[in-house]
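Table S2 (text version). Query chain:
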Amino acid sequence: MKWNKYNFIREKNDNEYILYNSSTDKYIIFAKKIKQLIDDPEELEKIHPELYCKLKDEQFIVEDSFNEVEYVIHNKRQIYNTSNCFRLIINPALDCNLRCWYCYETHLNNSIVSDTTLKSILCLIKNKAEFTELKQIFISFFGGEPLMKFNKVVWPILEYAKRICVENQKELLVSFTTNGVLLTQQVVDKLYDAELPCHFQVAFDGNEEFHNKIKKLANGKGLYETTINNVMYGLSKGFIFTIRCNYTPENMHSFDEVISLFQDVAETCIEHGLLEFDFHRVWQVDETSTMEKSINLLESRANPPKNKYKPEAHSIKPCYADNENSVVINYNGDLYSCTAKDFNPEEREGYLDEQGILVYNEKHLNRIKTRFSNPSCLECKIFPICYVCSQKKLIWEMFLVLTCLQRKIRKQSYLKEYKW
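Corresponding structure-token output:
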């Protein structure tokens, strides 16, 4: 028998220690005098057989032949390869009705899903809905501003998806990432009448003063009041909203006013889990300890720590981009891994063909491979609970390769200079 490589022992206080295993996500608290025995499984079995059996049953102690890394990879593959849910993220366009200064995307005027691409998307949804093991289809609309193409792209997709999911007894979930300006009463009513379970993430840049400096029309008119009214109407219809708070050192204090506004008007929605706040630092701004403390206080005030209507999530979940049953489809049919970067043609991971089949390229295969190919990750003790995005791992691997190459070049130049 041997000690599981993913075990951690940390001192809890003067008299107690915590034994934690990152592979099983289990822990045991034991007295200080037991610590010396735990280091030697064979000795522990003789002196404390009851504790030994407990540790063995919960895999703190394993057979010598047991391969902990293979066990973790097997479990992770099951999570990544889940066939219960298909997540489809669609960019109806890369155009937007606003020009926020911090936006990382390149806006393309007049970009829109073509009739050919639309038919391919509908074929993809049909193919997935007819898959026996699938239980749920989750369609998200991104962009650009997806509601700019609501009637021409979004509604035809949702109308078809609703029908095909009903026919095949699949659950349909819908979400939008939007600035909320075009989330009009007409749009909300149409979604409500169709009985579509929708979630909206709406971005705010602080209170009215700060928000209107960034989100405004070409004539300078601010859109804070319009967005607030749209969100409130959507909440009245029972839709779920996440208020994305894009904070900087200048505007973060003003979110206190935004929180108060929603708490005063939509207190019941917050209590029932229909409304929550999600704080994100504007990526061009460096985080400081002062900012972090202020945001932590705002988060604790905005989101009740215990919500009797919404169960707490205990497990660490991977990024949707690493799930093999998830894809981002751009307006032109190109495939991408995630929405957190610009949609450059060079970064595409394949395309959607006319039959609704996802055709992946080598870039996609290399990214997926990095999940379990990095030696340093496989040796790391927190590998079982680490779900760092594969894209970040790929960038890190490329950095290491370039670093090694630079060192090799420098070494060769040095040897050549001194004729060694």
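Notes on Table S2: Residues 256 and 311 are 26 Å apart (CA to CA). The longest strand covers residues 171-178.
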